[in-house]
Structures are given as structure tokens and as C-alpha cells.
């Protein structure tokens, strides 16, 4: 962490504090009528989370989470990046869970970090031999081949060619040798639109587009959703069909929060909302592989994260839309499912909030009945290494449903815990009539709109059509209502963008937009060039009698005719849902229905003389079965067990040197070194201890100061 980042972190923390003082309650709305897709558990795998012998008890620790894709080194051995996690061996273990797959990290064949590339021929020989072994294994549970890992940090043109050229040669080699296996990339360490754009342009021009696009999300939850939107817009602008997205490393920017329920809830919420194909949890605490990405607190004990992912893994039926207080932020978020067969709704959530959360369930399916049982549970987290006894029930009681809606207030919530609200039907039917047939699932709201169709929108209160003032085609032209006149300025093309609808004026070819991202009542509605921002995206919800509401995703407010005007020229703006008919619209179809970067801290000139002086390093490291490194080792990782180095591709304990251990162990466990004994100037103090700076790097102030 650089000094600048540290300052930013403190600033962000301060900012969150301010926000939390000014708001009292956070509301998450679960729209049970708005389906996203079937429950997939897309986020249910991890990087190096499953290895040859850990977790040892597969049946009770791995299987219940319904694992999907684990990411593993093509080879795990002494001359590779990692001595464990061998893809073929792990795929064999995982084969006992139907549907669970291994994503193969080919770059991990190479030793050291960053990878020691030995030339293209040697590379193709290495991966060719892996492909032969993979085929000979007879296993079929593969997600695909990842050609390289974090090229933005680990690829050097001095390897003999630039990354794109390397990608192309490797891609062609794999296609020829194993034509039916998927190819995944570029696996950059953080989402960088320019980087992805030039990669896609090259790949399209050279006929080597990946089957699955991939990048890492390790530097902040608040930016993630905008990355997904940006990527989909890039595809469109380049004429590339939608590729499945794999976020094959994800973790909170604060890496010690790996697996924390409050952190994970937000990842899961956004992955589901944007229909991510797969995601693998990691920060990658180097000496702790096989812990399912810190869902396990130790090699054998479950952490709080494990129980949270169990809730997630237990989800069945359809995932439905959750509207969080703010998608593009660090605030509380979550994911929900509706299962019409088993007749329940499950909602899991967590993350920074003000201590009170309102969960609003809309469009509850009729099988839930009028008086369902609502169970509210939480699972508390102390840190990633603390075992958990599992969830506690906060309350379990009956609630009354009215108009298909239920509001549940949870108080005393905090940022680190995870929560679940489970609603089970009362066996009656809130329509007061017959029991619903088992397959009568809630209609998705999307069924009222044919994506790409042309519509006019008639306000229920005034009977007038949504249009653009003066038939203008300019940015910022005002949107109003006017007598239906058949002009194209009153026609709109509505397209499902995956994260809500885009509503484009036919005459102006501009999007229905809330001016200046307003999130306030009265924020004006205009047209503006489509830019993919959330103030141009709307949820469409059927409210019965053939009417809908349009909810702006950015503000959560509804499209509304100002002061219930019934006149021509009445202004259109946004207002909170008040149930009035000036917020209700009829859709009339006009066209014919178409058929870090993983720091993995920089190593490492491996020491050349292996020695095994087993009294020269930490006893805690030796106890775990590792050896001491040769003298003069480079520290690549520090934790409470001591300092770790790498020798011949294997982890080892660095020599016990007082000066390396003479400061706060919390600071060392974050991967920082101790400052020199004579440098006692404290630049910052936090819960980890006192921080100094040396050579532009943060360091822990020596205990001798
Ligand atoms: C639920 O409805 C029943 C019957 O209308 C009523 O007696 C009861 O007080 C209601 N419960 C709550 C919590 O509102
Ligand atoms: C939940 O909280 C909201 C406001 O925070 C309040 O309007 C509502 O009445 C509360 N509902 C219940 C059931 O307490
Ligand atoms: C979150 O709340 C639980 C109790 O509800 C508590 O045990 C835990 O320490 C809290 N965590 C934080 C970080 O406040
Ligand atoms: C609206 O928000 C988007 C996304 O955060 C931002 O890029 C854009 O600049 C904002 N526009 C205005 C006018 O503030
Ligand atoms: C092993 O390391 C210890 C502590 O550093 C040292 O005293 C001892 O001489 C070393 N032994 C050998 C055989 O190098
Ligand atoms: C002590 O800190 C100062 C100021 O950052 C730096 O110039 C100096 O090199 C440090 N001394 C050592 C021994 O690292
Ligand atoms: C058991 C289970 O549901 N696990 C799932 C994790 O996600 C993948 C992808 O959807 C499913 O195939 C697994 O079944």
C-alpha cells in the first residue's frame, strides 16, 4: 500500500462515517416478480480454495456449499508457481459433485512470481504436455483454460513478444490441440476499460476472442457494477457478442475481509444482478490454500463466511431483482431467490449500513399466502481466522402480507455480519381462493416488455403520452406529456440491458434520463445520449390492470407527472412511490411483435543454495510441515506464524531475524515490514499499530523506539 492509498483509505473511511450520520435507515427492495435467471450460485468457487488434501472432509465441508468453479494451477509441484492444488488431482476430487468444475490457470505451470517465462517454445511444450495429461485423465469437469494471469502486471515484452501476440499464439495452439475446451482471458488484475478494449479489438481482428472474458475485482466493491456495465457497452461498441464473464479473483479491497459475510453479500448481490457466469473468492493468503477462500477459519473449522455461503448455496428456483440503496457504492447489498416448488423466498444481505435495514418484499407470489412465517437470522464475524458456531435466529414470527408486499425492519445491524430473511408460505393463498398449482411461478415483469420493441407510454391519470418538448432531438431536451399525436417524439424503444431497461426516444435517438443523476424527489427527466449510466436505466414493474411503473435505478424513484397534471405540456419528473395514478403508465406496442493485483508480493530471486537448518526459522512454520529457507531468503509474505519465502517453488520459513519481527504482528500480517530500529517517526496510528515510512513504503514502528 502506498502512502497515497493509505490516505485515500482514511478519507473513504471518514466519508462513510459522515454518510452514516446523515442517514437513518437503509432500504433494500426485493422484487419477487422480477426474475433475473435460475439460481446458479455463480460466486460459489474460490482460487486455490480446494487442494489435493484440503479441506480434508469433502462431504461435510465442500459439498454443502454446492461448489461451482474452483481455480487451480495446471500443475502443482516443486518446479511450479505452487507446490499444491494440481488441477487434474483437484478435478478428480471435485468430480464427486455433479456440475462442479475446475478452471485451469496455465501460467501457474511456471515457477516464481512474477512468472519466470522460459520462451514460447518451452511454454507451448509445457502446456501441450498438460493438455495431453488432462485428456488422458478422462475427466470432463473443466471450466476452461486461462491462458495467462494478470498480464497487466506479469507480462513483459522482454519475454520475446507483446502480450497480445503471445495470447494469439497460445490460443491457436490450444484450439488446435483441444478444440472443444473453452479459453478464458485476459484475467487482468483490475478492470481497465482501455486495456480490455485494445485486447478485444486485437482478438476480434485476429480471430482469437476468448470464450469467457475475465478480470479480477480486488480493489473496491463500489466500482464493480460500473465495470460490468462498461464491459457490456464495450462489447456493443465493438460488435462483439455477449461473452460470459468470469471474475476469477474477487476480494474486498481490505484483504483481511476475505470471506466476511458483510463483504461477500455485496459481491454476491452484484454478481447476480449483472448475471456474472462465475466468480472465485480469494485474496490469497499464501500459506493457507485449501480454505475455500477464507470461508474456513482453519484447515478443519468453518468460519462465519462458510455459513453465509451455505445460505447462498441453498438458494434454489429463480434469482430475483434486489434494489439496494445504491448499487455504485460500498453500501449494503444482497441477493434473493423465489422457489415456487418449495414455496419460499430467501434473501441474504450484508455490508455497511446505519444499523437499521428495511427489507421490502414486493410482488410476493401467491403461494406465500397472507400470513407467512418470516425467519430472520444473522451470522457474526470477528475475523477470517476465527471459527464460527453458525447463524443465530434474530426472530421467527408470522407477518401479514398486504397487496403482495411485506416490510421487515431489522435493527442493530452492522457491517460485518451476514443476514438472511426466509419467508415460507402459510399454505393458504392470499388471493383468497384456490391453492396455486405448483408450477405457477411469479411472472417476471420483463414479460410485459419485448426487448427492442417500440412503445408509447400513456399516463394513467391524464391519458396523455410521454414525449419530448417541441419534438427536440437535443441533449437535455425536456420530457413532458402531450396528447397522443402519433409522432415519433412520443415513441420509445425499450431494451433489456440486463441491469434494467434502456428507453430510447425514437425521434431523437436519445435515452430517457434523470437530469444530473438526481436522487431527489422532483429531479427532472430529460433525454440524453445513451451513456449506460444508471440514471438512464429503469426497472419496469407490472402493477396490475395493464399498468406499469418505471423506477429509475440510480435514484429508486418513479417516473411521475408533476402535480398530477392532466394538461398538455405537464412536466415529467421523478418522485417517490406514492401509489398515485400519475406514476402509472400503460405500455402500448407500436411495431409488429417480432418473432493486484494480486500482490502475492513480489518475489523473488530464489536463493540458490538449499539448506535445511531447521532451527533457523519459525517453529510455527515448521509445525505446518514446511522447511526453513536457505539463508538470505527474500520475505514474500508475513503472518502471525512468521516470515515466508519461496525456495524451488515451495514455501519455506525465512530465517528468524529479530529485526524483521520487532514490530506489531498485525502490521506484519498485512504484509508490511518493520521500520529500522532508529527510525521512530510515527506517521499514522490505527488498530494495527504505529506506522512509519521508509523508502516511500509503510512500515511498522520498531518495538525498540
Ligand atoms: C394480521 O392480520 C390479522 C387479521 O387481520 C390481525 O388480527 C393481526 O393483528 C395482524 N397482525 C399484524 C402484526 O399486523
Ligand atoms: C419499518 O421502518 C419504516 C421506516 O424506517 C417504517 O416506515 C415502517 O413503519 C417500519 N415497519 C415496521 C413493520 O415496523
Ligand atoms: C456485529 O454485531 C454482532 C452482534 O450483533 C457483534 O457480535 C459483532 O461484534 C459486531 N461486529 C462489529 C464489527 O461491530
Ligand atoms: C452521473 O453518474 C455517472 C456515473 O457515476 C458519472 O459518470 C456522470 O459523470 C454523472 N453525471 C453527472 C452529470 O453528474
Ligand atoms: C542453524 O541456525 C542456527 C540459528 O541461526 C545457527 O546457530 C546454527 O549454527 C545453524 N546450523 C547450521 C548447521 O548451519
Ligand atoms: C529512516 O527514515 C528516513 C526518512 O524516511 C529515511 O530517509 C532513512 O533512509 C531511514 N533510515 C533507514 C536506516 O532506513
Ligand atoms: C449444488 C449447487 O447448486 N452448486 C452449484 C454452484 O453453482 C453451479 C453453477 O450454477 C451449479 O452447477 C452448482 O450446482
What is this structure, in a nutshell?
The chain is α+β, with helices and mostly antiparallel strands and 705 residues long. It has 4 domains: 18-32 and 320-440, Sandwich (Immunoglobulin-like); 56-281, TIM Barrel (Alpha-Beta Barrel); 453-589, Trefoil (Acidic Fibroblast Growth Factor, subunit A) (Trefoil); 594-700, no CATH class. Helix 4 (120-137) links the parallel strand 4 and strand 5.
Features:
TIM Barrel; alpha+beta; binds 2-acetamido-2-deoxy-beta-D-glucopyranose; single chain; GH39_cat; Immunoglobulin-like; 705 residues; Trefoil (Acidic Fibroblast Growth Factor, subunit A); 4 domains; 12 helices
How are the SSEs placed, and which strands pair?
Elements (H helix, E strand, L loop, with lengths): L2 H20 L3 E13 L6 E2 L11 H4 L7 E5 L13 H8 L6 E5 L14 H18 L4 E5 L4 H4 L8 H15 L5 E6 L4 H13 L6 E6 L6 H15 L6 E6 L10 H13 L4 E4 L22 H10 L4 E6 L9 E7 L4 E7 L5 E7 L10 E7 L12 E7 L7 E6 L6 E7 L28 E7 L5 E4 L10 E4 L9 E5 L4 E5 L4 E5 L10 E4 L9 E7 L2 E6 L5 E4 L10 E4 L9 E5 L29 H5 L3 E2 L8 E3 L2 E6 L2 E4 L11 H5 L14 E3 L2 E6 L2 E4 L5
Helix pairs in contact: 4-6, 7-8
Bound molecules: 2-acetamido-2-deoxy-beta-D-glucopyranose (NAG) (7 copies).
Amino acid at each position: 500500500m502506498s502512502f497515497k492509498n493509505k490516505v485515500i483509505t482514511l478519507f473513504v473511511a471518514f466519508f462513510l462515517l459522515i454518510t452514516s450520520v446523515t442517514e437513518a435507515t437503509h432500504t433494500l427492495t426485493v422484487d419477487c416478480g422480477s426474475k433475473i435467471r435460475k439460481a446458479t450460485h455463480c460466486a460459489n468457487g474460490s482460487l486455490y480454495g480446494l487442494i489435493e488434501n484440503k479441506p480434508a472432509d469433502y462431504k461435510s465441508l465442500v459439498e454443502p456449499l454446492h461448489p461451482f468453479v474452483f481455480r487451480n494451477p495446471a500443475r502443482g509441484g516443486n518446479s511450479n508457481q505452487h507446490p499444491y492444488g494440481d488441477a487434474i488431482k483437484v478435478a478428480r476430487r471435485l468430480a464427486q459433485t455433479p456440475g462442479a468444475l475446475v478452471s485451469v490457470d496455465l501460467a501457474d505451470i511456471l515457477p516464481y512470481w512474477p512468472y519466470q517465462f522460459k520462451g514460447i517454445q518451452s511454454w507451448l511444450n509445457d502446456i501441450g504436455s498438460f493438455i495431453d495429461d488432462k485428456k488422458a485423465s478422462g475427466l470432463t469437469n473443466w471450466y476452461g483454460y486461462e491462458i495467462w494471469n494478470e498480464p497487466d502486471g506479469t507480462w513483459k515484452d522482454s519475454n520475446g513478444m507483446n502480450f497480445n501476440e503471445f495470447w494469439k499464439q497460445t490460443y491457436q495452439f490450444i484450439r488446435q490441440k483441444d478444440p472443444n475446451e473453452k479459453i478464458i482471458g485476459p484475467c487482468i488484475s483490475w478492470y481497465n476499460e482501455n486495456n480490455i478494449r485494445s485486447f478485444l479489438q486485437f482478438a476480434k481482428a485476429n480471430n482469437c476472442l476468448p470464450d469467457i472474458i475475465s478480470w479480477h475485482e480486488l480493489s473496491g466493491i463500489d466500482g464493480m457494477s460500473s465495470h460490468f456495465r462498461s464491459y457490456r457497452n464495450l462489447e456493443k461498441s465493438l460488435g462483439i457478442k455477449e461473452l460470459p464473464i468470469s471474475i476469477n479473483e474477487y476480494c474486498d479491497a481490505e484483504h483481511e475481509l476475505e470471506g466476511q459475510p458483510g463483504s461477500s453479500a455485496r459481491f454476491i448481490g452484484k454478481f447476480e444482478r449483472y448475471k456474472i457466469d462465475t466468480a472465485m473468492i480469494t485474496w490469497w493468503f499464501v500459506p493457507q490454500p485449501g480454505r475455500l477462500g477464507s470461508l474456513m477459519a482453519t484447515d478443519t473449522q468453518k468460519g462465519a463466511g462458510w455459513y453465509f455461503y451455505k445460505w447462498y448455496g441453498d438458494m434454489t428456483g429463480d434469482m430475483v431483482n434486489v434494489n439496494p440503496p445504491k448499487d455504485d457504492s460500498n453500501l449494503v447489498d444482497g441477493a434473493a431467490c423465489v422457489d415456487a416448488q418449495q414455496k419460499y423466498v430467501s434473501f441474504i444481505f450484508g455490508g455497511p449500513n446505519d444499523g437499521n435495514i428495511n427489507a421490502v418484499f414486493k410482488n410476493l407470489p401467491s403461494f406465500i399466502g397472507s400470513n407467512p412465517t418470516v425467519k430472520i437470522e444473522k451470522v457474526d464475524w470477528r475475523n477470517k481466522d476465527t471459527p464460527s458456531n453458525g447463524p443465530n435466529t434474530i426472530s421467527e414470527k408470522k407477518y401479514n402480507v398486504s397487496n403482495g408486499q411485506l416490510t421487515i425492519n431489522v435493527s442493530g445491524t452492522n457491517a460485518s455480519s451476514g443476514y438472511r430473511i426466509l419467508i415460507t408460505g402459510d399454505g393458504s393463498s392470499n388471493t383468497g381462493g384456490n391453492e396455486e398449482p405448483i408450477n405457477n411461478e411469479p411472472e417476471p415483469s420483463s414479460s410485459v416488455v419485448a426487448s427492442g420493441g417500440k412503445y408509447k407510454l400513456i399516463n394513467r391519470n391524464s391519458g396523455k403520452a410521454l414525449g419530448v418538448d417541441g419534438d427536440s432531438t437535443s441533449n437535455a431536451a425536456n420530457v413532458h406529456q402531450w396528447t397522443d399525436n402519433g409522432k415519433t417524439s412520443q415513441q420509445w424503444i425499450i431494451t433489456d440491458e440486463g441491469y434494467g431497461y434502456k428507453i430510447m426516444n425514437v425521434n431523437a435517438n436519445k435515452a430517457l434520463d434523470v437530469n444530473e443523476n438526481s436522487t431527489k424527489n422532483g429531479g427532472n427527466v430529460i433525454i440524453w445520449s445513451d451513456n449506460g449510466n444508471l440514471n438512464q436505466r429503469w426497472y419496469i414493474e407490472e402493477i396490475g390492470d395493464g399498468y406499469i411503473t418505471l423506477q429509475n435505478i440510480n435514484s429508486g424513484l418513479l417516473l411521475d407527472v408533476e402535480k398530477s397534471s392532466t394538461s398538455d405540456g405537464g412536466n415529467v419528473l421523478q418522485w417517490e412511490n406514492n401509489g398515485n395514478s400519475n406514476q402509472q403508465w400503460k405500455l402500448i406496442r407500436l411495431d409488429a411483435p417480432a418473432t493486484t493485483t494480486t500482490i502475492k508480493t513480489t518475489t523473488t530471486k530464489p536463493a540458490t543454495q538449499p539448506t535445511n537448518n531447521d532451527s533457523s526459522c519459525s517453529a510455527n512454520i515448521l509445525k505446518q510441515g514446511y522447511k526453513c529457507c536457505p539463508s538470505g531468503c527474500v520475505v514474500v509474505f508475513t503472518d502471525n506464524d512468521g516470515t515466508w519465502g519461496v525456495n524451488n517453488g515451495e514455501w519455506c520459513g525465512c530465517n528468524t531475524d529479530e529485526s524483521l519481527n520487532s514490530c506489531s504482528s498485525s502490521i506484519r500480517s498485512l504484509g508490511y515490514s518493520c521500520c529500522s530500529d532508529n527510525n521512530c517517526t510515527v506517521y499514522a496510528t490505527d488498530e494495527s499499530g504505529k506506522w512509519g515510512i521508509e523508502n516511500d513504503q509503510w512500515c511498522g514502528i520498531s518495538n525498540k523506539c
